[in-house]
């Protein structure tokens, strides 16, 4: 499980820090996100799901790895809505995990899941954390 969770940390960090990039670096940063997601990470997870043919990432049991991957997929789609276009098993995985009752409740508007960071909020956050 830890192997799968650790593997998406790099992509997760890229997604989370995108809004904080200086204007002259944003385009390259976005290109890096898309490249790593579609050429490095998503193909591996697509293959894992295909090879073992189960509903979940590890065996046939819901785990932290599923939650971590789902969050990364959602963040990636918030960044680029069609990013999963070439990954049908990841699309199915996202739909399946998103419909688990507790996850579905968490993803509804007004839940504890935070919306994507807005540009207008960046200066405020920079004052707090820098």
Verbal overview:
The chain is 67% helix and 0% strand. It has helices spanning 2-7, 9-17, 23-52, 64-79, 88-98, 101-107, 122-129. The chain has one domain (1-129): Glutathione S-transferase Yfyf (Class Pi), Chain A, domain 2. With 130 residues, the chain is mainly alpha-helical.
**Strand share of the residues?**
under 5%
Sheet with the most strands?
none
Number of domains: 1
Query: Uncertain segments of ≥5 residues (pLDDT<50)?
Result: none
Spatial separation of the terminal alpha carbons: 34 Å
Structural class: mainly alpha
Q: Tell me, what is the CATH class?
A: Mainly Alpha
Write down the overall mean pLDDT: 85
Count of helical stretches: 7
The value of Rg in angstroms is 15 Å
Morphology: globular
SSE string, helices as H and strands as E: HHHHHHH
Helix content: 55-70%
CATH architecture: Up-down Bundle
| CATH topology grouping | Glutathione S-transferase Yfyf (Class Pi), Chain A, domain 2
Give the strand tally.
0
